[in-house]
UniProtKB/TrEMBL annotation:
This is Uncharacterized protein. InterPro entries: Fungal_SecMetab_SDRs, NAD(P)-bd_dom_sf, SDR_fam. One of its GO terms (cellular component) is cytoplasm. One of its GO terms (molecular function) is oxidoreductase activity.
């Protein structure tokens, strides 16, 4: 089966490694790739014949909608999988807080915009394309919406506190995924799966300031992280992991 897959946040880190993996796969014939400025994507990715690259920003719903519109008119209106990778832990607007007393309103709003609202907008505009794949006789299997979450978003697993904005915004993302899984289970003739993914600690810009605090034996490359992400997406099913957050090694992160 030939598949069309979208990666939201394909410019660097895990998203870029995932894009490379998909472009090299004979099973994928269209890769819809987004980031804020696609001109910053590596040339080999941009010029690949399977690539469809678009500018998308977390604070611009119309940019998400216009990609969905393109898929509708140019790629038979369907996607087999959507992987929302984009997320923020630190940038010019936010940095992990050590205590609730350090939380700044604008920084927290920014975390929620990128980590919770943005994946919701991706789900809103791309769900019809996943539903179209679920209904298509040319496709088999259950279409998948996946979003990169983090173990730190688990309420049950919270033993340390801190990192308030990132933690709370990923917890909100996990609730979105559960809600989407319930909605997806009602899609006929095949359900749409929704799954969160905890990729473990991988070597990317996001983890750069914090990796010194992590056991080096547990740190993995972005390429390895992307392989684990795709394994989870490619095997996800409504009866199995839908609505859950799955770690890179296949274990379930407690809600
Ligand atoms: N790396 C890890 O160890 C780790 C661990 C747990 C969870 N995660 C999760 O995995 C995902 C990917 O992480 P990563 O390590 O690959 O991060 P990264 O290297 O920092 O890449 C972040 C991605 O998010 C996009 N992004 C950031 N802010 C954005 C905004 N305002 N609007 C649109 N796109 C935006 C970036 O696009 P631009 O190039 O346009 O900025 C980029 O594609 C994140 O959701 C993160 O929370 C990662």
């Amino acid at each position: 089966m030939s598949m069309s897959v979208a990666v939201v946040g394909a410019s660097r880190g895990l998203g870029l490694s995932l894009a490379r993996l998909l472009l090299a796969s004979p099973q994928i014939n269209h890769a819809v790739l987004t980031c804020r400025d696609p001109s910053h994507m590596p040339k080999d990715i941009l010029s690949h014949p399977k690539t469809h690259a678009f500018p998308v920003s977390a604070n611009d719903e119309e940019s998400v909608a216009s990609v969905a519109k393109y898929v509708k008119t140019h790629l038979n209106g369907k996607l087999n999988a959507v992987v929302h990778v984009a997320g923020v832990l630190h940038d010019e607007q936010v940095y992990p807080e050590t205590s609730i007393t350090k939380v700044k309103r604008d920084a927290m709003m920014h975390s929620f915009e990128v980590n919770s609202v943005f994946p919701a907008m991706t789900a809103k505009h791309f769900l019809p394309l996943l539903k179209a794949a679920a209904a298509s006789p040319d496709d088999s299997g259950e279409p998948v919406y996946a979003a990169l979450s983090a173990r730190i978003g688990s309420i049950g697993d919270n033993r340390l506190g801190g990192w308030v904005s990132y933690r709370a915004s990923k917890a909100a993302l996990n609730q979105l995924i559960k809600t989407l899984a319930i909605e997806g289970s009602r899609v006929k003739p095949r359900p749409v799966v929704a799954v969160g993914i905890h990729p473990g600690t991988c070597v990317t810009d996001l983890t750069a300031p914090f990796r010194k605090n992590v056991d080096p034996a547990t740190v993995r490359s972005a390429e390895r992280g992307a392989e684990d992400i795709w394994k989870i997406v490619a095997t996800a099913s409504a009866q199995g992991v839908s609505g859950k957050c799955v770690a890179y090694d296949g274990t379930i992160v407690p809600p």
